[in-house]
TrEMBL record:
GO cellular component, one term: cytosol
Swiss-Prot/TrEMBL GO biological process terms: tRNA N1-guanine methylation
E.C. numbers: 2.1.1.228
Annotated localization: Cytoplasm
Binding-site residues for S-adenosyl-L-methionine, renumbered to this chain: 113, 133-138
Highest classification ranks of the organism: Bacteria, Pseudomonadati, Pseudomonadota, Gammaproteobacteria, Cardiobacteriales
Name listed for the protein in its UniProt record: tRNA (guanine-N(1)-)-methyltransferase
Length: 229
């Protein structure tokens, strides 16, 4: 898998390949990650990538031309257009089902906005779809891109030492949440582990885990319903 990221501050994303599952996957060459900055595709000595919005208003907008040249440079370098995603609060909210769809795409190009966003003409002509990580606003798209990279890479074959780890994650089965997990010691501060986990009966353990997943999911949905009223 190839992941190209267009960002003004790639240093925000870089640490994701320095530790943990994503780092190990990168070391095993399960995916390639490269950063591209629009400042490299400007003509003026200040490497200007933004300008004030037409019609007035606060902030700055990332300009069309440097972004278009960056997309063209990626396509020329890769000999592939890739699937182009703009990290945006206006986009579809990332869910596990979407991550599973993205992991099947061999070449992703993530565009990270800054300031008030990017010129709409880039979205209209170069972007395949917009993606959000939640209904809130960040200073830029770099953190959102890091979330997407982590979410997708951990689903790559051989990225995790135990493939069952992500198969049992929350949302791996629709919107079902994960079951509780316990480890040593068996009892501490008056808190004990459910006896069923020591029964040795795998069918009973799986049934208990399933029941707990359903209970957690129902509890979350009930809380959401209450908060929405």
């Amino acid at each position: 898998m190839i992941i190209d990221v267009i960002a003004l501050i790639p240093e925000i994303i870089q640490p994701i390949i320095e530790d943990g599952i994503v780092s190990r996957a990168h070391q095993k060459s399960l995916f390639e990650l490269r950063f591209w900055t629009p400042r490299d595709y400007t003509e003026d000595r200040h490497h200007t990538v933004d300008a004030r919005p037409f019609g007035g208003g606060p902030g700055m907008v990332m300009m069309y031309e440097p972004l278009k040249k960056t997309f063209d440079a990626i396509a020329d370098y890769r000999q592939s257009r890739g699937v182009r995603i703009y990290m945006s609060p206006q986009g579809e909210v990332l869910k596990q089902s979407k991550a599973r769809a993205l992991v099947a795409i061999p070449h992703l190009v993530l565009l990270c906005g800054r300031y008030e966003g990017v010129d709409q003409r880039i979205i209209d002509t170069e972007i395949d779809f917009e993606l959000s990580i939640g209904d809130y606003v960040l200073s830029g798209g770099e953190l959102a891109a890091a979330v997407v990279i982590d979410t997708v890479v951990r689903l790559l074959p051989d990225a995790m030492s135990n493939e069952a780890s992500h198969q049992n994650d929350s949302f791996s089965e629709g919107d079902l949440l994960d079951h509780p997990h316990y480890t040593r010691p068996r009892e501490i501060n008056g808190l004990s582990v459910p006896d069923v986990l020591f029964s040795g009966d795998h069918a009973k353990i799986e049934a208990w885990r399933r029941e707990e997943s359903l209970r957690r999911t129902a509890l979350r949905h009930n809380k959401a319903d209450i908060n929405n009223h």
